[in-house]
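Narrative of activities, Objective 1.

The group set out to show that a structural description can be obtained from nothing but a protein's sequence at a throughput compatible with the screening campaign. Below is one input-output pair from the validation batch, recorded exactly as produced.
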Amino acid sequence: MNILILHTNLNAYLVLGALLFAIGVYGMARRRSFIGMLIAAELILAGASINFMAFSRFLAPNPAIGQIVTLFIMAVAAAEVAITLSIIIAVYRNYKSIDAEDVSELKG
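Output recorded for this entry:
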């Protein structure tokens, strides 16, 4: 009996990472609110992180490199969320909406 074990298969991780990345890109293109765009951007970063970790686990001579890159991606994602939420709050205070089309005429 040959049972497919997913945690020992590089292709399973790559497909999952590509799926998350594709959902994130689709969400960035389709969402009109800033919160939806923020969630889609987080999905893109999660897909990239999964691919880094997968390549690190299966192909890299030093697996710590993929983990370090993933930690940097997580730090960038946390900073992105903090900055984006503060911008969303500032936009909501001025325009009373977080819809991207409503604030497309920003001057600055």
